[in-house]
Predict the structure.
Amino acid sequence: MKSRICLILSIIMVVLITSTAFADAPYGSYTYDYWGDPVPAPAPYVPTRLIDGESLGIGPLRGANDLFVSDSNTIYIADSDNNRIIVLNDNWEVERVIEGFEKDGEEETFNKPQGLFVTSEEVLFVADTDNARIVELSPDGEFVREIGPPKADIIPANFEYKPMSLVVDRAKRLYVIAQGVNQGILEFDSEGTFRTYMGAPMVSANILQYVIRLFYTDEQLSRTIDFVPTEYNNISMDSDGFIYATTSSISVYDIQGAISARADDDRVAPVRKLNATGTDILRRRGYFPPVGDVHFHSRGYFDGGQSMFNDVCVDDYGIYSVLDNRKGRIFTYDGDSNILFIFGGKGNRLGQFNNPAALSKINENFIVLDKTGSGQGQITMFEPTDYGRMVIQAVSHHNEGRYEESTAAWDEVLKFNANSELAYIGMGKAYLDQDEFYTAMQYFRLGNKRDYYSKAFQLYRKDVIAQYFGFIVGTLFVVFIALYVRAKLKRRREVEA
Amino acid sequence: MEVLRGLRYVFYLIFHPFDGFWDLKHEKKGNLGSAFVIVALLSITFILRRQATGFLFNTVNLLELNIMVEIISVVLPFTLWCIANWSLTTLLDGEGSLRDIVITSAYALTPLVIINLPLILVSNVITLDEGAFYFFFIGLSTVWAAMLMIVGTSVTHQYSMAKTLVCTVCIIIGMGLIIFIGLLFFSLIQQVVSFIATIYKEISLRF
């Protein structure tokens, strides 16, 4: 008897131990469907690691503002309030801490550096914000040069230059976002000379504002701010050299207008993809523009207000993710701006943030820098789940033109998530290619994809008509004969009468 | 039988509006029963249009379909129109009675029924490329009904065309006013009710 109890207990133990394979994510993941309603989705990424200054053995991170993963998977952290740059290898071990550098024989330090960029040759650029300069350091941390404030006629004399974020393209041109600049991104050439502003967001003013202004007195007018373009707050570069920039200064009314109009233009764009001429070339083909949350309470409610992007991270195949500082969420979109994942949240548990400042990717994992996670800077690492991996696979196979693999992946995605409209559309396209029009129609209907449904339906209708053509013509023929005979009989009867 | 006779007259009326509306009133070709049947049919058309229109042309969420709302969206504007029309034309030397107005207005709405009902079927067998026809006929039914409404008002009240147009605009403003006063009334009643309830509560808690 005793041994049997022992056996049962040990079986229970084994089951309990092996069943804790996956940690639950402390957030509800979801996406938005065609109607703009949030629909639950499996967690695409789960938090697996938390790294802070203590665990790295270099003291707490204070006000850390930026995070950069170089091509060699070296992680750079701008520990702004400690005036230092921390360099980690991909095992999360400190390689070195850059406290300062030697310039012309003198020791110099940073002053609240807020942005970082590392080229593929591991050349480090630091936006040394409060020193009003960009510092270029060689891979071994030697000072190369500094790039000071822009000098040009169009820049006012009292302009206070505070570089916040920067990228460097392959031609060594610098694109810098500076605090309080709303004319666009500052472009410096490879010599470090200011060239021009690029990618200035369009000014948005609505009719109501114009009408209100008509009734203002001169004094009131002088006190209101002019219609100003929105200012960017962060910048990233993809592998093709396109610049992604985010802004959080778009009004909630503009965002709501763009959502309800399902806008596909760049007039209301919290995230932009800019080419070398500063034109927004982000493809916005999703059911809703990429503005983060589509359904939200108005401000004043708990958890109210639109998403406020403050970082963007670009993956292969145009897949990009934006960080919503207000609600601590990460929104991942594919190259056509279809929403793939939404996850994360605010709070103090693993996988939640207080003031997320930077988002980056190392291999397939997301890393998020939280400026004030429980009082100090910390980094959370997210690993993809099977579901998340499968979605990414489906999208990337499709972009590579490997449609069969893509279909198989979408099929797999549907087993995880019956709410995935993208998966239904992917399946529909596959059936359309295989000339199974009716099945394709069903899938497009589930994915609410009307243009493709129309295509499938047209072909299906053609099939049906072709199939019943003989029957239809035959019926018409019989009816005509019958009418003819009837008319004949009637006339004969009239003649006889 | 009377109702059926009235309904058959519709097909003459929509193609000959001036004679049609004249005879409708003076030769008693229509009746209230057939008018209500038309409004009921219009309600059914609106419900079916939301429920049964082909997927390609149905851009509303079927999960949120509420038949009562669809019925109200037909009956309420119709009632408001008739009341506002009567209130205004009584003051402006209109010759139509409320009964005439109800019958005229209902009959004027028939193109919406007889074009949209078949269109619901058609929308199930056409593609987006052929959508132009679909939207053309929807537009046609609306314009046709609006024109019948104006001609009907003009003939029933013996108005000139200019006076009818001005009157129509005023009626629409009047409909807005009725809604406003209605809401105001409900809001005030609510205030009064809550005031009395508060006093009652206060007194009952005190003693």
